[in-house]
Amino acid sequence: xSTQIETPRSPYTRRKTTRSNYELYGWIFMRASGVLxxxxxxxxxxxxxxxGHGVHSIxxxxxxxxxxxxxxxxWDLLMLWLAMFHGTNGVRTIINDYASKDGTRIVLKxxxxxAFAVIVVLGTLVIFTFNPCPPGSPADLLPSFCAA
Length: 148
Fold this sequence. Notes:
Number of strands: 0
Structural class: mainly alpha
Shape: elongated
Oligomer: single chain
CATH topology: 3 helical TM bundles of succinate and fumarate reductases
Distance between the termini: 89 Å
């Protein structure tokens, strides 16, 4: 008794090929950004959870104190940007692998890039326009470096 495998419904056709190494660079970027993200995230977690009184000391004053220095602004900005680029590149790869119709692929990637742009712009604005000493705030809620 022999088993016969039916022929596929449609033959495999390659998508339009280009001579660029875009996918190779994307693959290398994912590895490099993953390593750098590990350093950034574990540094962030160590400072926020292990120093001082741990999670109980995280409040508005703690964030205000951190974001009052350019070092922590750049640290958190790098973490935001790298995480967004890394995640967007990963989801882009998944869309390319699983979206079979060109129209679906275009719509999904458009929504992905729109979400990426909105989050990166809003996150960057929050980091650089954050005011740890808002006027009119009660003195007991402000960080110690603010003039009451």
